[in-house]
Amino acid sequence: MRILVLGGDGYLGWPTALHLSDRGHEVAVADNYARRGYDHEMGVESLVPIEPMQVRLDAWREVSGKTIKHYYGDLVDGDFTTEMIADFRPDTIVHFAEQRAAPYSMIDRKHAVYTQQNNVVGNLNVLFAIQEVDPEIHLVKLGTMGEYGTPNIDIEEGWLEVTHNGRTDRMLYPKKPGSFYHLSKVHDSHNIEFACRIWGLRATDLNQGVVYGQETPQTVRDPRLATRFDYDAIFGTVLNRFVIQAVLGHPLTVYTPGGQTRGMIDIRDTVECIRLAAENPADRGEFRVFNQITESYSVGEIAKTIANNFDGQVEIEHVDNPRVEQGEHYYNVKHTGLVELGLEPHLLSNTLIESLFEVADKHKHRVDLAAMRPTVNWRKASNPMRDEK
Ligand code: NAD
Ligand code: USQ
């Protein structure tokens, strides 16, 4: 297949592009390098150094003999997006290219507006381009489990059969997201479902849980192929942060009360889920949703698992929760769709955690401890203009 990976320079987009290329697909990546820009803005860096795109592509050609094509541009520019899709003529578009940090979207008005504009407009441009260039193209879109929030009923895969006043209908599952970022994904899902309904597009919305891990069989083939490993309080995700904190002797920062539970997935399963979704496309007119998680853990359980596996002292600190989220709640997620397509999950294991400790230990000299503490408060969006007055 010809597969275009939007956001191909990111934490997940890059290893996905390699995985798909390794499987014999014709792959192109596109990115505007906004993610590298947020690093500059926030004064942080990936713990594991990452190479510029050209170096990454040359390294992949050297180790695999395969070429990945590259487009540089912004999805918010609709002409660029349409021209790129018309030029590459993919069978499948994998869309990772969004601002993906909940805390970043909660900094202030500017960051919330940027996040929703970037994500919602970029995704709309992709939908219009598919409709214009070739409605047969299958869109595989990265959504998030956080679209659902933590409802007090079972979470189904995207759709819910509702009986009301004696009548029954199949409806999009109700959403109760927890940040302006997570809301942008809800808006995307609605726009995609609408495009499938009115234009007959085909789409798979992957509601992915929190990803952990840093290595895939392809990225370990050369240090120049490494993907990002973020640990700061804005872009670092919880399990990756706890691993790095343990290695540094920093207390594990469990936001109170620690009972908040999330679906999780190993990065090796992320790339495999994308392959499975791409190779088994949705039908024309179908808005197909999979919940892309393999297990659920509370934040407190994750901290204990990391602490128990670490060969040394680990302190667990209960930090005043900067977010507004339920701390104790029901959480039961259906996630059978991808397993039915053939996913064989890597469950969280001691071996994986130990290999992550090794990665963190090798690069620990690069850590800036000042980036570890949360700075963004959900309850009070700061407005720098107003604060300066
Ligand atoms: P990332 O920030 O590392 O990668 C996203 C890439 O998209 C970046 O390289 C960025 O420069 C690019 N990008 C952003 N806006 C763009 C635009 N307008 N035009 C072109 N390129 C643009 O994020 P990630 O962790 O790799 O996540 C990828 C996707 O998966 C996101 O959509 C995210 O919401 C979703 N997701 C991630 C996780 C996780 O734990 N990392 C979990 C669930 C879902
Ligand atoms: N948390 C802590 N301590 C920390 C960091 C986080 O207790 O040091 C807690 C948070 O309060 C939250 C949970 O861990 O309850 C998850 O936080 P996170 O930062 O790991 O993940 P989140 O903000 O939800 O976002 C990440 C990705 C995002 C993706 C989402 C999947 O950044 O792109 O969409 O995971 S999900 O959570 O399923 O929505």
Automatic annotation (TrEMBL):
Pfam families: Epimerase (PF01370). Coiled coil: none annotated. Residues 3-291 form the NAD-dependent epimerase/dehydratase domain. InterPro entries: Epimerase_deHydtase (IPR001509), NAD(P)-bd_dom_sf (IPR036291). Belongs to the NAD(P)-dependent epimerase/dehydratase family. This is NAD-dependent epimerase/dehydratase family protein. It comes from Saccharopolyspora karakumensis.
